[in-house]
Amino acid sequence: MRPLWQIPRDGLFWLLISVLISIALHFDHLPPWVALAGIVAALWQIQLYRERWRQPGRLLKWSLAGACGAGLLLHYGRMTGLEPMVALLFSGYILKLLEIHHRRDALVLLYLSYLIIILQSLFSTTIGASLLVLMALLPVTAALVAMHGSTDNSRPATALRTALSMTLQAMPLMLVMFIVMPRIGSLWAVPQQNSATTGVSDSMSPGDMTQLGRSGAVAFRVEFDGPIPAQHKLYWRGLVFSSFDGRRWEQQASKAYQDGQFLQWPNQPLAAWDKMIVRRGQALSYRVTLEATHSPWLFALSTPVSRSSSVALSRDFRLVNNEPVVSKLQYPVTSWLEHQLEPSSLPDWRHNIELALPAGYNPKTRAIAKQWREETPDIAALIDRLLGLFNREFIYTLRPPALGKHTVDEFLWGTKKGFCEFYASSFVFFMRAAGVPARVVVGYQGGERHPSENYLLVHQYDAHAWAEVWIEGQGWLRVDPTAAVAPQRIEISFADLFAEREGFLSASPFSLEHLRDIDWLNKLRLKLDAMDYAWSKWVLGYENIQNDFLLGLLGGITPQRIALLLLFAGGIALLPVFIMLYLSREKSTRDQLDRLFLQYCTRLEDIGLARKPGEGPRDFAERIYQRAPSLTVPVDTLTQLYESARYSEIKVGDVQRFKVALKAFKPSRKALLSSSC
Amino acid sequence: MSKASQQITEAIIDRVESVLVGKQHAVRLALACLYAGGHLLIEDLPGMGKTTLAQALAAAIGLSYTRVQFTSDLLPADIIGVSVYDRNKAAFEFHPGPLFNQLVLADEINRTTPKTQSALLEAMAEGQVSVEGETRQLPQPFYVIATQNPLSQSGTFPLPESQLDRFLMRLRLGYPDPEAERQLLSGADPRSKLASMSRGVTPLQLATLQEEVSQVKVSASLVDYLQRLLQFTRNSGDVDYGISPRGGMAVLKSARAWALMAGRDYVIPEDIQAVFAPVCAHRLPVSGGEHRAENFIQQTLNSVDII
């Protein structure tokens, strides 16, 4: 079966390039066989073009579609979520490549290519990725240009050049739209991306943090209004775990809190529990730019308040976003480092939450905790005694031995080697067993100061878990058992502590972090990070400053002013294009005489006597004599004048004479013969 | 000057029309072709007046005329001439063939072999023939009017494109209109008038006319128009390749003659449009029938604006 429509050669070339680029961009998060299927489909299309192979039959296409659906279901085990959806779209896109019968099919594929390439920005929005996406759009535009080309043998480079100039011409307008267009909140919720995320998760079991310790990715950056506080004060609280099932620490269900709503939004009246926060001393203001976590929780120093309307303060005194953070998010925070949380006595239900322990786990720890509490009734002394034990006998390592059922027992009295979550978990378990309310807090600790840009860079390997203990009259106190084992972990940066050791960064084999010792490479790394930060602050985070910027520009934001600004700035942005078009316009060969002759034609056209294309002045005049004899004299005069001036030789005054004659020439419909057809 | 040329033209056309009734347009084109110094190919069915036209033109212009019926056994020597040994002079003497006339009617040119065809076509292109190592000039002016029958192609040798190109124009006469046909049927055979026909132009006048043709003015915008027409034929996907530059020059030469015949000393677009189809149709490689070539030419003329 021959295709009904022959795809232009250059169009096919760029279409296939677009498909291959789409595959390359999404290679990370596609099942490999989908990418392979894409390459096979592209080959098939080439063979179709060369008339070597035939169009796939209906049966084959249906079975391929079925196989793709089944394969995706098998691969992901579910169809909801970002990645399965993208993969589903992708397989449809690839199957469509096998049936290009009309130009509209090719166009559908190209529009899909645009969508699929843009979808990449859901997965990454760094400068590099954004530039890559922008460049990847170019071949698609070239294919679009080629599909609309007239000849089918033009060279692909021609289409690319046209696409490039079109893209460049669109750039100014793009910038204006970026600056002026009001941002609309997402119209639909982006499905949560479930796999391959890094960052702290909503539960903690032994070994979780170890994974993070191997990643050099940036978690967030913080820009302080004043100087950056000392390293040991930088405890970025993210999640509070009060519920333990013997192995896994989890958040307490929010309905367990019985005093008012769990989340307090900035624009709502203060919740009853807000008065349990005592804020003292100097307020510390800073802005956090968080990388996508696909989770709603945010990170801040205790105890925080955020002015952002989408950020709430929760009952356990941490910040929560109103939706999962799927792209970079910037939020302003004010923290009081000196504070007390719930200093007055805890009600019974609070005691129950913060003391709960699963039955049947870690009997040895329970017994020893009870015994120690009897020996050391003072809570502060009890804490010191346990920390002292850690300090003397325990080893801080990124490669802890595996633990069995009684994790705390085995760790405290057996292996004695572990990472921060081992210490936090067993510390809190011990405290609860001793009857002291305690909970696990997870977040990040410390960060890397950027030497020149005055911001703090927090990496995934700064992820940390510590404990909070409640003491009557003082409220919740932060206790970091890791500090007792490895004080340097808190005092100096994590990277310095673990550099070149124990699989640190083994999950980021290409990270520049490996080369921190080489000075200029380290500088390069920090420079790149500063660029990335500026990108996320000014481009991705532009939404946050757009309002202020426009307010300063317009003196008040109304739809009319926005529209006017859009028109004005759009006009300015397009001005170079207009100038370019004006300068490069084809030098018109029409001189004044031809323009006057065209006026003459227009006047006759207005009364229904249009000159046909290719009709000479004399033939035209002959036709007018037939249709409107009363115009014979003026038409004859004008035709003679034009003809002799145009085709014999132009004499001085010819144009002027034509002009004068034309001025007097005002034909009307009355001149037409009514009987004429 | 131009008035005189117009009068001469009318005189010639009147004479030819008295023999070939109701074919004024074709006669004008044929005359324009001769003014422009080009050869004419007439393609039509038998009995449409091809020979009559050629004879009448020869008589009205006063040229020496022969007719050669081309057959498959015709040899080049038959049209060029042969040297015969003269015993009295004891030397070979050249006996010129029918080509040594000012107007040669080559009837059914596609019936003869390529060998003879090319002998004729060489004469047409060079205005001279080479016989036995000696180049002999043909009389001036030298015109060939060739005819061919588009039907019954069996046993013919169709002219290749390169040789078709030697003809300035290709005409078709077609059936006469009813009035002319009635006139033709009711009167005596118009060909009887041929013998008594006086010439309408002297050889000197004809030479002057041909000189005038080359002086007809062509303005820049007209050249521009013609070039766009040629460009259109080349860029269109309907034909494999368009009109050659030589074809363009042929159009311009014919248009000049056409303008002169209308009493003008400058060419207007209508002149080009009038001669475009006869000059270009046989130069276009269009497969699928002659009508397609003519449709394509009409489409070209309708698509390219004069301005």
Report on the structure:
- The complex is a heterodimer of chains A (677) and B (307).
- Chain A is built from 23 helices and 19 strands.
- Chain A is α+β, with helices and mostly antiparallel strands and 677 residues long.
- Chain A has four domains: 9-180, no CATH class; 203-362 and 420-515, no CATH class; 555-584; 592-671, no CATH class.
- In chain A, helix 7 runs antiparallel to helix 19 (559-584), helix 10 (363-375) packs across helix 13 and helix 22 runs antiparallel to helix 23 (654-664).
- Chain A starts with 8 loop residues before the first helix and ends in a 13-residue tail after the last helix.
- With 307 residues, chain B is an alpha/beta fold.
- Chain B has two domains: 2-215, Rossmann fold (3-Layer(aba) Sandwich), CATH 3.40.50.300; 216-307, Helicase, Ruva Protein, domain 3 (Orthogonal Bundle), CATH 1.10.8.
- Helices cover 47% and strands 15% of the residues of chain B.
- Chain B contains twelve helices and nine strands.
- Chain B has helices spanning 2-19, 24-35, 50-61, 76-80, 114-126, 161-164, 178-186, 203-215, 220-235, 245-261, 269-280, 290-303, and strands at 39-43, 65-69, 81-86, 91-96, 103-107, 128-131, 134-137, 143-148, 167-171.
- Chain B has a five-stranded parallel β-sheet with strand order 2-5-8-1-9.
- In chain B, a hairpin with a 2-residue loop joins strand 6 (128-131) and strand 7.
- The mean pLDDT of chain B is 85.
- The chains are: A alpha+beta (677), B alpha/beta (307).
